[in-house]
Amino acid sequence: MSQPHHRGLTVLAGPTAVGKGTVSTFIRDHHPEVWLSVSATTRPPRPGEVEGVHYFFKSAEEFDRLVAEGAFLEWAVVHGQNRYGTLRSTVDAAVEEGKAVLLEIDLQGARQVKAALPDARFVFLAPPSWEELVRRLIGRGTESVEEQQRRLETAKMELAAEPEFDFTIVNDSVQRAADELVSLMGLSATPR
Q1: Torsion of CA 151, 155, 156, 157, to 10 degrees
Q2: Domains of the chain with bracketed CATH
Q3: pLDDT at 166
Q4: DSSP for 14-77?
Q5: Is 80 left (phi over 0), alpha (psi -120 to 50) or beta?
Q6: Would you put residue 119 in left (φ > 0), alpha (ψ -120 to 50) or beta?
Q7: Gap between the Cα atoms of 181 and 100, Å rounded
Q8: Closest among 187, 149, 167 to 33, alpha carbons compared
Q9: Residue 124's beta-bridge partner residues?
Q10: What is the pLDDT of residues 24-66, one digit of tens each?
Q11: CA distance 190 to 188
């Protein structure tokens, strides 16, 4: 079986708390023509997250089995704790169907996808400023102080990876950032 061509694949990555999930949710809600990949993760659901919509929540054992089977396009341990991964079969099927595919993943995952599928489009979502990134992370209130510090240290390293990407979008407004992303994907922006 031949490998599908991945020009219809856009990879969105950026530092923790930059708003990747918020931008992706806006696109999911306003751009049904975009197929958003749903990642698998070993972390527990946050309040309001739905199985199969936000993530596929997997036990460590299930995740290990999928890794051993080579089922992931990419996977990584994030913040030294939980694992996240993108199922290759779902992405390949969507690309083969001609869909505009969006992967919202972390930096480690984006690097793996770039090594495997260099013809994909890689977009870095950047914060308007470091201060705004810190405000967003602390304002979420979903992590302990220790976890916030760990994520901020990770974010410093993630911000340095911006030159590895084809495009950068500053997330100063969710709708504006989403519109710029769908425009890069060759689609129409959200009607105002």
Answers
A1: 100
A2: 9-184 (3.40.50.300)
A3: 96
A4: -STTSSHHHHHHHHHHH-TTEEE--EEESSPPPTT--BTTTEEE--HHHHHHHHHTT-EEEEEE
A5: left
A6: alpha
A7: 12
A8: 187
A9: 13, 168
A10: 999 999 999 999 998 899 999 989 999 988 889 999 999 999 9
A11: 7
Question: Phi/psi zone of residue 186: left (φ > 0), alpha (ψ -120 to 50 degrees), beta?
Answer: left
**Which one-letter amino acid corresponds to residue 44?**
P
Q: Which of 117, 84, 121, 79 is nearest to 3 (CA)?
A: 117
For residue range 66-84, list pLDDT tens digits in order. 999 999 999 988 777 899 8
The whole-angstrom separation of Cα 12 and Cα 23 is 10
Residue with structure tokens 């302990």?
A: 144
